[in-house]
Design a protein that fits this description.
alpha/beta; 8-stranded mixed sheet
């Protein structure tokens, strides 16, 4: 980013205080096979107006050129560190390993397919100072505010809060220590479960001015089917966090159950705001029905494991 642009961004957020400039901030980025996006993510992190930062990349046993790219960035800037795992443990495990190496009093989380503005850290520090909160949940925009996703996009948004996605979260380190490590058994939804534990010790505020942009992420046929795992993971998350999201009585997602009973309802997807342009978009609609069955089977497995009574 051009220095003049960084200066403008810094001015929009308000000038950081002298004390804020001293704060060491740890930025944690888990990564797995993201050679196509990790470079842009690191470029945006290195362009921060707040320069007292350590950037910890936690590689979860990537098999592509992700580590090579990170290593090249490390030669350019000593503020970048790399933690590697010999096995794939999921994002929760990757973040736990990085946190064990962090030294900052504030821990900022983002993802390897996200770009942050130049005032991201300084804005977060100002919010911590102004509110005294334990955590900040920021806005996530997918590609741009005007972009209309295609059906094959894995669109990631957070415009209203209460999602607690670690693509854009920041915590006081002492709150994370009190809450304990992320639950690595969950693999998915571990960021939300962590947030509920943090809120036992302090507030988490949602701030639209603390925002990031998620890069475009296109699903493949395989990843579309495997998205069922992400949705089914709501069951253990709800049980561990003592919430009842997605449940109506003893039924998990009645709307999806209705679609399984009446498959033509799948084609209602064509009347949503989502774009259908490529052949893949249409193929994935046809793949939705088997994905719903796969998801339902996973829900039953989670229910058996946690001894939760779920009819369907």
């Amino acid at each position: 980013m051009h220095p003049d642009e960084a200066e403008r961004n810094r001015g929009e957020a308000g000038p950081p205080s002298h004390e804020q400039e001293k704060e060491l901030v740890s930025v944690i980025v888990p990564t797995y096979n993201r050679s196509r996006s990790i470079g842009k993510c690191l470029e945006s992190l290195l362009a921060q107006s707040h320069t007292n930062v350590e950037i910890i990349i936690s590689d979860d046993n990537s098999s592509d050129h992700t580590v090579d790219i990170v290593t090249e960035f490390m030669r350019r800037d000593t503020r970048i560190g790399l933690v590697r795992s010999p096995v794939n443990t999921g994002a929760g495990g990757a973040r736990n390993r990085a946190l064990s190496q962090a030294h900052g009093d504030y821990v900022f989380y983002t993802d390897d397919d996200v770009e942050v503005p130049a005032d991201w850290i300084s804005t977060g520090l100002r919010i911590f100072s102004d509110t005294g909160c334990s955590g900040i949940e920021g806005q996530i925009e997918y590609v741009s505010a005007t972009y209309q996703p295609r059906y094959s996009d894995r669109a990631i948004y957070n415009r209203t809060g209460n999602h607690f996605m670690l693509a854009n979260m920041a915590y006081r380190r002492d709150a994370l220590v009190k809450a304990g490590p992320m639950n690595e058994d969950l693999r998915i939804m571990e960021d939300r479960e962590l947030a509920f534990r943090v809120m036992e010790f302090g507030d988490i505020v949602f701030a639209k001015e603390f925002f990031v942009t998620h890069m475009r992420d296109e699903l493949t046929f395989k990843s579309f089917i495997l998205e069922a795992r992400r949705t089914a993971a709501w069951v253990p998350f709800n049980i561990l966090s003592k919430r009842r999201d997605q449940m109506v009585g003893c039924v998990y997602r009645p709307d999806k159950l209705l679609t399984l009973a009446f498959p033509p309802l799948i084609f209602m997807r064509f009347f949503t705001a989502t774009r259908f342009e490529s052949p893949l978009d249409y193929v994935l609609v046809l793949a939705l029905y088997p994905r719903l069955w796969y998801e339902r089977i996973l829900v039953w497995k989670w229910a058996i494991r946690y001894r939760k009574f779920i009819i369907l």
